[in-house]
Amino acid sequence: EACLSIPGVVADVARAAEVRMRWTAVDGTLREESFTGFASVCAQHELDQNACISSSGCPSSTGEGLPNNYY
């Protein structure tokens, strides 16, 4: 799995083939949807990214926490 936010870094990440997620939309309505296959992987990746879960942690504004080969 790779991420556009950290170019050149690839990692093996175990992901569920199917997930069901709930969230609050920008207009305040509650939403719920199931995702399968590639959409499931993408949804889990984005959820992790929003929660600052990655192989390198959450980079600071100075770049601390990014892989050495990031720049």
Describe the structure using short key phrases.
71 residues; two-stranded antiparallel sheet; 2 strands; alpha+beta
Structural description of this entry:
With 71 residues, the chain is α+β, with helices and mostly antiparallel strands. It has one helix at 37-50, and strands at 18-24, 30-36. The longest helix has 14 residues, at 37-50. The protein is globular, with a radius of gyration of 14 Å.
Short description:
The protein is built from one helix and two strands. By secondary structure, it is α+β, with helices and mostly antiparallel strands.
Q: How much helicity do the residues have?
A: 10-25%
* Alpha-beta classification: alpha+beta
Binned strand content: 15-25%
What is the rounded distance between the termini?
A: 19 Å
Shape: globular
Q: Radius of gyration, Cα only, in angstroms?
A: 14 Å
Give the integer mean of the pLDDT values.
Answer: 81
Assembly type of the shown chains?
single chain
H/E element order: EEH
Structure annotation, total helices? 1
Task: Compute the number of strand runs.
Answer: 2
What is the strand arrangement across the widest sheet? Answer: 1-2
**What characterizes the major β-sheet?**
2 strands, antiparallel
**What are the segments in which pLDDT stays under 50 over at least 5 consecutive residues?**
none
